[in-house]
Write a structure and sequence with these properties.
The complex is a heterodimer of chains A (about 300) and B (about 325).
Chain A (H helix, E strand, L loop, with lengths): L1 H31 L6 H19 L2 H30 L9 H21 L4 E2 L10 E2 L2 E2 L4 H23 L1 H11 L1 H6 L4 H26 L3 E2 L4 H17 L4 H21 L5 H15 L14
Antiparallel strand pairs in A: 1-4, 2-3
Chain B lengths: L1 H27 L2 H27 L6 H19 L3 H23 L4 H19 L11 E2 L15 H25 L1 H11 L1 H6 L4 H27 L1 E2 L6 H14 L7 H21 L4 H22 L4 H12 L1
Antiparallel strand pairs in B: 1-2
Helix pairs in contact in B: 1-6, 2-6, 2-9, 2-10, 2-11, 3-4, 3-9, 4-9, 6-9, 7-9, 10-11, 10-12, 11-12
Classes of the chains: A mainly alpha (about 300), B mainly alpha (about 325).
InterPro entries (chain B): ABC_transp_permease, LivM-like
Subcellular location (chain B): Cell membrane
Membrane topology (chain B): Multi-pass membrane protein
Chain lengths: ~300, ~325
């Protein structure tokens, strides 16, 4: 019984980090119809900015917002100077459908190379700001440490803020409108290009938060070739697809589901099957419900 | 019809001539270059496998490294457990990878664009952890793949690297020749039709899903061959030999070569081998720090990839053809 509770807690924590990553993929997909495979690289870069702040000012609390803001700035910059040109350049011809995918791949390589230039390829460390030792109940230790609690609180707060922005503000309305029908939004006076850049910025911020939290949740090590970030990318993508690439709610749902399933597999079946499980889950969802578990009404346009 | 036959024959002799040139060149350069030549030949096979998949049937794979790994492990298992002759190892690698490709292709045919890209990417990310789990695959260290010494009849001076070069070049030449013919056949035309307009192709009576699976199978077979060649040149098969960066490098090579034509495949292959060396000499000249030296190749490859996508999205060869047409 206790083990089930612990597994549940581990799953929810890692799932909530995947949720941030999945959200950032969904935001980019909704605004520019590109699956951004450079997302992990962008998250990594903002985490390195965060690391720099931790290093200089010795404060994780300052580093977290800095990582998010720098993530937003980097993403907006990439959208402005790069993706816009690219999508205009390659909207026809035989490779039109794969050009954005390939380009984000190139971007990933560029970002990694830049990180290597400035910080080197060795591991650097971000100390976890809170204790990672679980609370104890009687003699048993709960898999809920102050750090994990922080992650859960931070992610839920970010989700609340995002929901508020999307549902209650004009910019959120503009975001939803230009994702749904860009032409009509343009006619209605929405600056669709600007809104898209904003979508990318939000995605960058979410990615930055995911990177900082994931690093603190793990062993704190950070390197340009880190497997953690490749996994974050893969699991973020899988979660986004499970939930439906078009739905923010779906991304969160998919990520929590993925986190829980993986945690239970890890505890009860064994570590060797974790990745295979994620992969099989992805394939099953793609084959049975290609639009995702939580998809909007049929009839939406791709 | 007559013309087609003539060009077929001339192409065949063209390949033989190319092989002879390779033979002469292989004899006159030093060991390092010969080894690099073998690597180029391996990349030619691997990149053409991606070009076939992406350029001709319109499917994207970011996880070709996984298929290369299947080929490499297949060849090594055959060699180590059954002591199979080298050519049989390669044939086995091709068959095994093609089998996997057929299974993957059956799933992939239902996916498109970013979904397929992401799924194959996930496969490439997860592959090392999967290969680590099975005892008979040797875990982290992997397996040894030793093709043995070159036959004594080639003389005592004949080095192992040259033997690698011969095998890899022969494999690349044969597969290129075969692929050229395949792409000019009915299947090639069907794949191109699907890529350009899959709905129109379906209306014309083409079984789209089946053709896509076939393309994936053939592509996987080639990838398996490339994997066996790669394992041969490094003498081992391990999860670490097929990292995510390999998959990305292959995709990059395919885009640099121009994904829509087979003609440029050598450009991508040579670029992939040459860039580390170029980067090294640049870093040496400007006296760069260790960080810069380590990451310059990555920067150059990614930069080249982005520039290609922006300016010559269909690859240099196609671009040149296009320009000629415009001038005339």
């Amino acid at each position: 019984m206790f083990q089930i509770l612990n597994t549940f807690l581990i799953g929810i924590t890692s799932g909530s980090i995947y949720a941030l990553m999945a959200i950032s993929m969904v935001l980019v997909w909704r605004s520019t119809r590109v699956v951004n495979f450079a997302q992990a690289g962008m998250a990594l870069l903002s985490t390195y900015f965060g690391y720099e702040v931790v290093n200089r000012f010795d404060s994780y609390w300052l580093a977290l917002p800095v990582a998010m803001i720098s993530g937003a700035v980097v993403a907006a910059f990439i959208e402005l100077v790069f993706m816009r040109v690219l999508l205009k350049h390659s909207n026809s011809g035989p490779i039109a459908s794969i050009a954005p995918i390939i380009a984000t791949l190139g971007l990933l390589g560029l970002i990694k190379a830049f990180i290597g230039f400035f910080w080197g390829n060795q591991d650097v460390n971000i100390e976890s700001p809170l204790s990672t030792v679980g609370f104890s109940i009687g003699t048993q230790t709960l898999s809920l440490s102050p750090m994990k609690l922080l992650i859960l609180i931070a992610v839920s707060m970010l989700l609340l803020v995002l929901t508020f922005v999307f549902q209650k503000t004009n910019i959120g309305l503009a975001l939803r409108a230009s994702a749904y029908a860009p032409e009509i939004s343009r006619l209605a006076g929405i600056k669709v290009d600007l809104v898209r850049t904003f979508g990318w910025a939000l995605a960058g911020a979410a990615g930055g938060a995911a990177g900082m939290l994931q690093t603190a949740n793990g062993n704190g090590a950070l390197s340009p070739d880190s497997l953690e970030f490749s996994l974050l990318l893969a699991f973020g993508f899988i979660a986004a697809v499970i939930g439906g690439l078009d739905s923010l709610l779906g991304a969160v749902f998919g990520a929590l589901l993925l986190g829980l399933v993986l945690a239970f597999v890890l505890t009860y079946v064994g570590g060797s099957l974790v990745f295979i499980t994620a992969f099989v889950l992805l394939l099953v969802v793609l084959i049975v419900r290609p639009a995702g578990l939580i998809s909007q009404k049929a009839g939406r346009r791709a | 019809m007559h013309n087609l036959k003539a060009s077929n024959i001339s192409r065949f002799f063209g390949f033989i001539l190319f092989g002879v040139i390779l033979l002469i060149v292989g004899n006159s350069v030093d060991e390092l270059r010969v080894y690099q030549g073998a690597t180029v030949a391996m990349y030619v096979v691997a990149i053409s496998s991606i070009i076939l998949l992406t350029g001709y049937s319109g499917q994207v794979s970011l996880g070709h490294g996984a298929l290369l790994a299947v080929g490499g492990y297949g060849a090594a298992l055959l060699r180590n457990n059954f002591n199979a002759p080298v050519w049989l190892c390669f044939a086995g690698a091709v068959l095994l990878a093609a089998l996997w490709g057929a299974l993957l292709g059956a799933t992939a045919a239902r996916l498109s664009g970013p979904y397929l890209a992401g799924t194959t990417l996930a496969l490439a990310v997860g592959l090392p952890s999967i290969a680590n789990q099975f005892k008979f695959l040797g875990g982290e260290q992997g397996l040894i793949f030793d093709i043995g010494l070159p036959p004594a009849s080639l003389g005592e001076m004949f080095s192992l690297y040259k033997w690698f070069f011969w095998i890899a070049s022969l494999a690349a030449l044969i597969s290129m020749w075969w692929l050229q013919n395949l792409l000019r056949s009915r299947y090639g035309r069907v794949w191109r039709a699907i890529r350009t307009q899959s709905i129109a192709a379906e209306l014309a009576g083409i079984h789209v899903a089946r053709s896509k699976i076939l393309a994936f199978t053939v592509s996987a077979g080639l990838a398996g061959l490339a994997g066996a060649l790669l394992s041969m040149t490094i003498s081992t098969v391990s999860p670490g030999a097929f990292p995510l960066t390999l998959s990305f490098a292959l995709a990059t090579g395919a885009v640099i070569s121009g994904v829509t034509t087979l003609g440029g495949v050598i450009i991508g292959a040579v670029t992939l081998v040459a860039i580390p060396e170029i980067a090294d000499s640049i870093a040496h000249r400007i006296g760069a720090s260790e960080n810069v030296t380590n990451n310059l190749p990555g920067l150059l490859v990614s930069g080249l990839l982005i520039l290609t996508v922006l300016f010559v999205p269909n690859g240099p060869v196609e671009q040149m053809k296009h320009r000629k047409k415009v001038h005339i």
